[in-house]
Amino acid sequence: MTSAGAELDPWLESLDETTVVLTPNRRLSRFIQQHYAQFQRRRGRQAWPTLPCYSLSGWLQSLWVQLQQSAIEGTDQVLLSAVQENILWEQIIRQHSAGHELLNPRQTAGVAMDAWHKLLQWQLTPELLNSRRADKLLYQRWLATYRDFCRERRLTDSSQILGLLRQAITAQQLPLPGAIALYGFDTITPLQHSLLDCYTEQGVRVYPVNVTKQSQVRRIALDDEEAEITTAARWAAGLLVQQGAVDASLRIGIVVPQLTVLRAKVERLFNNVFEPQHLLISNPRHVPVFNVSVAQPLSQTPLVQAALQGLQLNRAELEMETVSQILLSPWLGRIDELPCRALLDAELRATALMLRPGRLRTAAGASRSTRAGAQVSRCPDMFRRLQAFHHLERTARGRNRWPSEWAAVFTGQLAALGWPGERSLDPMEHQQSQHWQEVLDSLAGLDPISGQCEVTVALAQLAQLAWQYPFHARTGESPVQILGLLEAAGMLFDHLWIMQMDNLNWPLPPDPNPLIPIRQQVELRMPGASVEGELQFARTMTQRLAGAAGEVLFSHSRFRDDVALRPSPLIEEYAAVTVEQLPLIAAVDYYQELQQTASMVNEIDRQGPALTGPAAVRGGTQILKDQAACPFRAYARHRLRARALEQAQPGISPAEHGKLLHRALEIIWRQLDNQQALLRLSAAALNAMITAAITESFFLITADRKPGKRLQDLESQRLQALIQSWLELEKQRRPFTVAFNESERDLTLAGLPLHVRYDRVDELADGGLFVIDYKTGQPDIADWIGTRPEEPQVPIYCIANEQRITGAAFGVLNVRDIAFKGIGTNAAIAPGIVIPEAADYPDLPGNWRDLMRYWRGVLEALARDFMAGAAAVEPKSVTTSCRYCDLPALCRIGEHDDTDQHAENADGD
């Protein structure tokens, strides 16, 4: 096979050490250097001069450094990096944005910076922006501030130095190369062109180089984006298999125009093809055969993310998610303390959305009892580290510092937290740690830009620097290169696949800079300015890619989000092929293989061990409610004690709404005791009693957190109206006295001990008892019927004292309904009560005595099943029983083929 770069040999033969080769990007310059070395080795040479090959931006910066070293006049300015310049623009925009609704100053800074560089690169004057439009006037103020700031601080940027470089070349203050070869350029700005013209005027030959291959170009249509990526991966893997081994000289390119957005998806699907055994935990991971060119932000790497989260302890309050990540991070503190930190996290996240660092320290240092009875700190190592961090934070608090000083403070604080952990870093983590130090150096370099600032500003700048710092793990040369569109320009391959070539993606839609007049952008043919410009760029790029490999495949999806797609008009001329015509590697599905492996037993265990003693059982009536909903749920919750992590939520949760209502009614009826007392109260006195009860009930939820006065007032108004309406309904009943008000009782049902808590039980004039269960939803009598009742609490309350119970009802309190819904021996007990004989429910027994026997039989059967260890994943109804269940990951309901059958055959519906 001919080498992917053999076409470069005639040009490489003509080069000597005096020729400077320039490329649009660093990847392409590395490509040229690698092939130059291969070319020299093919000629039998053992050593040769290094080829001076640079990216254009890197070359310009090296020239600037040479000028500064020569102390040429005007070169004493500090060159801003792209990140520093972006931060400066953002700083200026925030300063001038008062009264302007800028949704994203950081994004706006990027647009403003791009506009400034386009003005310079196309040699336009800022006066071009003179306009009465508000956005143009605002940008003029930003630009004036930026230029004044740079002038005062002796700062410059990458575009401004080109003017000084032109003067230096003309004045022969820089050494001249023998020639300049421009490889792979599609666009050169007027300012760059004028710089190269200065070299031409000095007698230096400047010439373009474009090398193409004789190619077989085809196109293919796939169903969707995922199919495109997967098929490209199988194609690349198939080509490697054809070689018999991974050939280091083989070059396969995969071009993904939206690689920045699709990076995670591309990596996942390529891993599924190239390393499907990653599903098997026992198998070691390998260095991928493929290489993804797009770097990820350093702040998204695990090690640096842990550092940034730890430094958030400098803030007055932290989001609970940040607290969780600090507590659960293996890079902060001791690893052997992670279990107790996880328990602490579970407790904290159930009580708060925001947390002060002081409360976190207190919680970590709280005492717990050991098995020996000694009192020790809950998380002693983390407590000690949080104390040390607090000491450093308090020392640094209250004064502005230079960014370089903050860099030193942050380094000390991370050391106090034990970052980067006690274990040895793996190679990937070691690279992340090294880059983190470079980010801290960049923070120190903001001294001339930001000046002295407070800690929150320094933290924001550090986070921005880490976000804009590209992290790409250093790996060996890979035969499969996954590239973005611009990165692939100029490179040569043996095989090349370009995806997303559909009629909506290619050519790209125009994207002009909104801060420069569109007319000037179109006239000057700036990138992204017009439809015509993007079409011409797409044509040029398509032709370049079509000649970049011996085999070229353009692909497109047939559908995206239910929208039918066609091939881009720019690739329609090429012959279409089908998947069957490609050398695809067979797809390996290790999940299916695991399911079919003979050595594995695929058996669903529906039965746990029976309860031999009831001492360890807790859960009250909820046990039978869960057993009726799904036996596995009851077993997992009340035998295994499985629970999802509780998560605090803003405002007042639905559970808290119910608690407030229950508590307020409890307080009211403790004072009233009976209906006569209610009837004697004046409207004003009753309103005052309700208000006082609601106020007292709020102590239930304000012990750990406060919902806020406005929200508390709104909830109080809602409760006032509900309770007022409910008490008016209570006045319409026959006389009663409240016998049990939020009371408790223990009973045993088929050997299962149950702890019963009554919402309310009234004693009627005839001595009978009437059970009331408050509900804020939309309950129905049907919830008590069937072998698996939805709401078994009321039946349990009834059979606990069935000799005296003469009625039971839901007390419904919501904005749509204030009512009793229940059954009794006498319909006159309360409005909304029906007798069994008149109830329109086919499965309901026809009289009260039979109903009691029926309920006892149903409940004892549920209790016996629980005691026997029934643990089948059999939800009564997938749509209702599973809707609010927090255990789907444990029961894996989605993997049960008979789920629908269970739902259809469940008794009681």
Write up what this structure looks like.
By secondary structure, the protein is of the alpha/beta class. It has six domains: 6-72 and 164-209, Rossmann fold (3-Layer(aba) Sandwich), CATH 3.40.50.10930; 81-157; 216-295 and 476-581, Rossmann fold (3-Layer(aba) Sandwich), CATH 3.40.50; 297-471, PCRA, domain 4 (Orthogonal Bundle), CATH 1.10.486; 614-643 and 882-905, no CATH class; 654-674 and 682-699 and 709-874 and 876-881, Lambda Exonuclease, Chain A (Alpha-Beta Complex). Helix content is 45%, strand content 14%. It is built from 34 helices and 29 strands. The strands form nine sheets. Strands 9-16-8-17-18-7-21 form a seven-stranded parallel sheet. Helix 12 runs antiparallel to helix 13 (338-349) and helix 28 (683-697) crosses helix 29. The longest helix is centred in the last third of the chain and has 22 residues, at 709-730.
Topology:
Layout: H1 9-14, E1 19-23, H2 26-42, E2 53-55, H3 56-69, E3 78-79, H4 82-96, H5 105-121, H6 134-153, E4 155-156, H7 161-170, E5 179-183, H8 190-201, E6 205-209, E7 216-222, H9 225-242, E8 252-255, H10 259-274, E9 290-292, E10 296-297, H11 302-311, E11 318-319, H12 320-328, H13 338-349, E12 354-355, H14 357-365, E13 367-369, E14 375-377, H15 380-396, H16 403-416, H17 427-444, H18 447-450, H19 455-468, E15 470-471, E16 480-483, H20 485-488, E17 493-498, H21 518-523, H22 531-546, E18 549-557, E19 559-560, E20 563-564, E21 575-577, H23 590-596, H24 622-629, H25 631-638, H26 654-672, H27 675-680, H28 683-697, H29 709-730, E22 736-741, E23 744-749, E24 752-757, E25 760-764, E26 769-775, H30 793-800, E27 805-813, E28 818-824, E29 833-834, H31 848-868, H32 878-881, H33 888-891, H34 899-905
Parallel strand pairs: 1-2, 1-5, 3-4, 5-6, 7-18, 7-21, 8-16, 8-17, 9-16, 17-18, 26-27, 28-29
Antiparallel strand pairs: 10-15, 11-12, 13-14, 19-20, 22-25, 23-24, 25-26, 27-28
